[in-house]
Amino acid sequence: MFSKLFLYIVSFIPKYRDFIIYEISSCRKIKAEIPLEFQKVTIGNVEDVLSFRTTHISHIFKSFLSNDGLGVYGYYKGKVIVHGWAVMNKTSAHKIVNGYFDLSPGAVLIHFCSVDVKYRGNKVYQELLSVLCGQLSDYDIYIDTDGNNYSAQKAIQRVGGIYKNKLSMLQCRSKFLLIKKS
């Protein structure tokens, strides 16, 4: 009981976060150092992510699917070891994504990517980005990553990501307040 109350109270403490935004206009095709099979996430395979993520994450992915998101799983030896998601703006108006990103018409934001820690350092994330970019080539492609995730930033640059800007935010619960765009 105490731990739930503590976590609830802590959730109201604002957190400072930086997001680094990259744009990809020409994506390099990179293969992982281990053989991967990629599949589009569907309602039928959405729970496969439980091989390395929690039930909470599978609920988030179900929400992404219900909002027309595109998800991709990378399988190694029959288990999901990497995932990535994209939000496409198919409208003629700007769309705010994740509470902080202004997505232009005809653009896509790749976000919510993760690699199982046991397989990091094998170019798995780079191949995931290559696959996603190939499926999204009709869009202007943007990728966001946490400002402290230097490995992801290097991987994004290796597939052709060009630094666009940094968004500095205060986050309280699930709300973001833009402090600075640089």
Ranges where pLDDT stays below 50 over 5 or more residues in a row are: none
**Mean of residue pLDDT values:** 92
- Radius of gyration over C-alpha positions, nearest whole angstrom: 17 Å
- Sheet with the most strands? 8 strands, mixed
Order of SSEs, N→C? Answer: HEEHEEEEEHEHEE
Total helical elements: 4
Based on DSSP secondary structure assignment, what is the total number of beta strands? 10
Oligomer: single chain
Give the structural class.
Answer: alpha+beta
Q: Strand fraction band?
A: 35-45%
Global morphology: globular
Report the end-to-end length measured between terminal Cα atoms. Answer: 42 Å
Measured as a percent range, the helix fraction is 10-25%
Give the strand order of the largest sheet, numbering strands 1, 2, ... along the chain.
2-3-4-7-8-1-9-10
Blueprint of the fold:
Layout: H1 2-10, E1 15-24, E2 37-40, H2 55-66, E3 70-76, E4 79-88, E5 95-97, E6 101-103, E7 107-115, H3 124-135, E8 140-146, H4 150-158, E9 162-172, E10 175-181
Parallel strand pairs: 7-8
Antiparallel strand pairs: 1-8, 1-9, 2-3, 3-4, 4-7, 5-6, 9-10
Summarize the structure.
The protein has 182 residues and is α+β, with helices and mostly antiparallel strands. The chain has helices at residues 2-10, 55-66, 124-135, 150-158, and strands at 15-24, 37-40, 70-76, 79-88, 95-97, 101-103, 107-115, 140-146, 162-172, 175-181. The protein contains four helices and ten strands; from the N terminus they run αββαβββββαβαββ.
List keywords for this structure.
182 residues; alpha+beta; eight-stranded mixed sheet; two-stranded antiparallel ribbon; 23% helix; 39% strand; globular
